[in-house]
Amino acid sequence: MSEKNRDNKNRWRNVTIAFRMSPEENAELDLRVKLCGYQTRQEYIIESVLHQKVTAVGNPLMLVQFRKQLRGIEEELKRLTTLEDADEELFTPIRTMLEILNAFAEERNYERRKKEKAQK
């Protein structure tokens, strides 16, 4: 029997939600969970579904996953001779990482503007 699962508000999570995915969608979900720094798929999916957004959690795991993905992309790019040889799957992690980095930049700019307003 599995351990009782509680959320951050100490509510018991006893309802199971299940859905089907293709192997490619499953791989993309796993990649997004890792790149955003979440520990579990559950955290990522709940954040995404309930809040219509996913907030990247900056942590060492996220940095490790970024490096791992970038190394894989670099190896694939070295292998390619023309852009036509590139598989669409190569661009999925690139898009995901760019979304995360853009969100970090927007948050940093928002905080900077907020601080500037407070100083005036």
Provide a concise account of the structure shown:
61% of the residues lie in helices and 0% in strands.
Describe this structure in words.
- With 120 residues, this protein is mainly alpha-helical.
- The chain folds into two domains: 51 residues, no CATH class; 60 residues.
- 61% of the residues lie in helices and 0% in strands.
- It is built from four helices and no strands.
- The chain starts with 22 loop residues before the first helix and ends with a helix.
Largest sheet: none
Low-confidence parts lasting 5 or more residues at pLDDT below 50?
Answer: none
SSE order, as H and E?
HHHH
Helix content: 55-70%
**Number of separate strands:** 0
Question: What number of domains?
Answer: 2
Report the span from N to C terminus.
Answer: 58 Å
The number of distinct helices, counting runs of at least 4 residues, comes to 4
Q: Taking all residues together, what is the mean pLDDT? A: 83
Radius of gyration: 18 Å
- Given helix and strand content, the structural type is mainly alpha
Tertiary shape: flat
The share of residues in extended strands comes to under 5%
InterPro entries: NikA-like
Protein name: Mobilization protein
Secondary structure topology:
Elements lengths: L22 H13 L5 H11 L8 H20 L11 H29 L1
Protein name: Mobilization protein
InterPro entries: NikA-like (IPR053842)
Organism: Dorea longicatena
